[in-house]
Amino acid sequence: MKKYPLILLIFTTFLGILACREDIPNNSFEKRNDRAYRLLEKSKATEDIEQKLNLLSSALEEIPTSRDTLSAIIYDNLIYYYNLNKILDSSIYYSNLLINYGIETKDTLQIAKGYYRKASAFNFKNDQVNVLRNTFEAQKHYLLAGDSINAGQRGLELSIAQTRLGDFPGSQNSAVWALSLLENSSDSLYMASIYNNLAVTYRKMNDLDESIREYNNALKYVGTQADSLTVMNNLANIYAEKEEYDTSLDLLSSIIPLAEKTNALNRFKDNYYYTLWLRNKADVADSLISIMEARNRDHDLTGLLASYDHLVRIYEEDDPEKALHYANRYYETARKLHSVSDEVSALYYLVNLSPPRASKTYALTYIRLNDSILSARDQVKNLFAKINYDEERKLAEIDLLEKTTFQQQLEVLRGRNRLNIAILLGILLLGSVAVIYYYLKQRHKKERIREIHATEARISKKIHDELANDVYNVMTELERPANLNKDVTLNKLESIYLRTRNISRENTPLPTGSNYQEDLHDMLSQSVPAHVNLYLSGFNEISWSKVSRESKIVVYRVLQELMVNMKKHSDASIVSLNFNENSSKLKITYNDNGSGFSSAELKKGAGLKNVENRIETIGGSFNFHPEKNTGFSAEILIPF
Length: 640
Prior knowledge:
By secondary structure, the chain is mainly alpha-helical. The protein has 25 helices and 5 strands.
């Protein structure tokens, strides 16, 4: 069921009344005999707006100083009448002058009023982002001035701006805040508007039961029959969305005879016939077309949006050609009204109803427009969050300064003394930490140097033991080309190359990112000779993302060292690695069926000592069970 045009109507109903009441300037002022005052009085006596504006501008020129209290009243009148004439840039200009006047004279209420008037001008321009910015400033300064009623009213307007910008959760927060400020107010119109806006946001968030509850709350406060009928119409629409058609039709039947204005009557009847169609596909086309024609005669463009939408819906299955006709009219009208949400709805129909070529064009426009709406909503949420954070911090600072008493100043002095003591202790603590840090850094540096030397020695030994003799043999063969077997020599060179690459891989920095698990698996698989069977248990169940970078490096190097020892010394045919984790530790159990080691042999080996040192640096533990001729087993615990 169509939502947006109907919701816009309820906004218009309430906000139109609020604007009329609030925008009238307060001209109460002590009588004066100067020319500026006489021109102001003369402007109040004429009905011609152009003449009013000329007289007010002349009065402003007669004021000798910008701090004259009469300036604020003249600014306020100029803003009001420029808004009436829709000369909005001038209205914004004088709103800024009113704000500056308040800043110069330290009059917080005038600052608040200036921001409020400025927000009203931007509202006429439909610039809701600037409505939000300036309404927030107005609310803030009304609170600073102790005017909770005006602050609450601005909270409502802030909430409505957020709704129009698509920030529905933020709108609800602002509405609840406005309720807290106005709960003791006798102003029923604002209370009705707050509950109405809450109902709108819940409806947009598809929480229809909450929307019904808030519309019923709004009904308790509405002051006119016309407003009551509009709220009841929206309630009927929600019941129709809930597919409670009989309840919806009963509500609409009760309000149609009470409608006083043609636009309202057409709106209620249009919803009534459309709900009849939703209930049982009743033949209501002629009735809906008659209402559409009446709206067309009355130039009710907002009402036409609903008419076209309903006509598309009833024709789209049985008469797609008619549905396409009304979808085009729907799109044209939405563009005239700059109603982006209705443009998106109309484009959706056009995509589904148009011929393939046109459908593709409409689809691209639909995607672009829909994406821009979603992007704008995200930007608004971020914008308001930042404004809110910055201003709350400023308000807290201002409040602290304004409420500071002699006792608080004394407490500040005591606090400074405590702070000085804390700073002294902090310096001592930092000095101690620096000394400890330097000591640990130096120790770590020495360990790194030792590790580098050990790595260099290991590489040198490996090159000497595994490569040097083979290189020498190949060189010897090449010196005797007559006896050279090319294929054998090439195989030897390839073997030398592969072993050289393996040495390089073993000593390059380890990647510890998303490919770590795959790299570790490859290393283990490639480290096992062809005659050895490797069994990995629980390897894929480990949450490697929980393991720190340092721990990943240690696990890799430790397992690499164990595999090297296995190849060199154990003569094993089976190697098993079991991986297991709990909430705080990773446990790795190594077993092979090789020849094992005696305790004496283990003490002589530098490799396993390096393993133990690596694990201890990250707070882990390494336990092995030396026993000759019974295989080798070890247990490694690594903290997360």
